[in-house]
Amino acid sequence: MSNAYTSGYPQNPRLTRAGARVSGRVLASLVGLAVLVGAFVYAGRRDPQAQADAEQAAIGSSPAARAPLTAPQSAVGGDDSAGASASRRKTRMPVQSPLRQQFEQARDLYAYAQTLRSRADAGEPEAIWLLTRVYDYCANYSNAPVDYGNDTRAIESMNMRSSAAMAAARSRVSERCARFVPADNLNYPMILVKRVEAAKAGSLPAEASLLAAGEPLEKTEDYRNNLIDRVVRSKDADAFSALAPVMGIASNGRSTGSAYSRAAGTQFAELAWQLAACQLGQDCGPKSSLMTSYCANGGICSQDPQQDFASFVYDAAIPRQGADVVQEMVDSLTGEERKQ
Fold first, then answer.
1. Is the pLDDT of residue 141 over 70?
2. Is the pLDDT of residue 255 over 80?
3. Greater model confidence, 180 or 325
4. Which residues contact 182 (CB under 8 A, 6 or more apart)?
5. C-beta separation of 259 from 19 below 8 A
6. According to the model, what pLDDT value does residue 169 have?
7. What's the mean pLDDT when you consider all of the chain?
8. Do the beta carbons of residue 330 and residue 89 sit within 8 Å?
9. Which of 80, 151, 244, 322 is 20–30 Å from 141 (CA)?
């Protein structure tokens, strides 16, 4: 139900068990993970070493997150056209709400969640939505903190290309989620219930995340297309990001409304929706929840600690010939005019 994916490393039995402990977002993002990993592997075919790195990053990334998507890796196969695309992306950056900024900046997510609870109990849609984001982000850690730490050390000791970055991302999760414990029951059913509550209270991102999780408020094509239209018109970065997983391969062969059909149903469409979210103001920086979750849960990590999501995607996930196509999708979703 969010931007994170599980990772399991069959070479190590303990890590295999860790991969089986999945959070709500992991279970909800099966399709999104397949699309994103496929995109990285596809890009890797341009270069044997890049392909090997992509396959290594995807080891065990399996059954199971908006979104989500844990995934960013190093600059592989970057070129001048990708750089040009990156310059086109540096347009206006809408400011996120203070509550959303606090989610990204809080060092102690347990304390942050406490500040949200009274507002969530009062039925405030944004507060309920952000509580579910905290629970989603911290679920893998909180369900077994000791095992999570042991697995992090085991991953670091593997000495793979992405091991250090993945261990650093997991350590960041451990630090931010340190006060959550198994008794908090941050599990998929609980997160799903809270997402439904947020959606019914009026949270568009929560409503979009339910569609991406296969649990929409209504199961009709008219509702689906209307929701997609509402998300695009809202220019709500969280809603774009939450909807991204269902707009990729999962939309292949399905109606999305003629206005958005060009940004749906292909292996790069999900990336386009997430890139649009970044352009609309979602924090997609090097230590954002997006980048952290991709790396901590999916093993797709940038080796450049200063690289943001957009730069990473254009470097490592999109072939040179596809960069302009993806940017055109992003522009069509955000309403930006292309600058040649």
1. yes
2. no
3. 180
4. 142, 143, 144, 145
5. no
6. 97
7. 76
8. yes
9. 244
| Tokens 């999708």 belong to residue | 329
Specify the pLDDT at position 259: 65
The single-letter DSSP state of residue 95 is: P
List all residues 6 or more positions away from 79 whose beta carbon is below 8 Å from its beta carbon: 320
pLDDT at residue 226 tops 50: yes
Backbone phi, then psi, for 304, in 5-degree steps?
A: -95, 110
What was the pLDDT predicted at 194? 98
* Both tokens assigned to 78: 């970057």
Residue 205 to residues 128, 137, 145, 201, 277, Cα–Cα distance (Å): 11, 16, 29, 11, 11
How far is the C-alpha of 230 from the C-alpha of 225, rounded, in Å?
A: 9
Per DSSP, the three-state class of 219 is coil
Q: How far apart are CA 100 and CA 303, in angstroms?
A: 27
Phi, then psi, of 187 in degrees rounded to 5: -120, 170
d(CA 266, CA 246): 11
Instruction: Answer whether 278's CB lies under 8 Å from 310's CB.
Output: yes
Q: Which two tokens stand for residue 214?
A: 């296969």
| Tokens 């955000």, located at residue | 334
> Cα separations (Å) of 50 from 47, 56, 241?
5, 10, 27
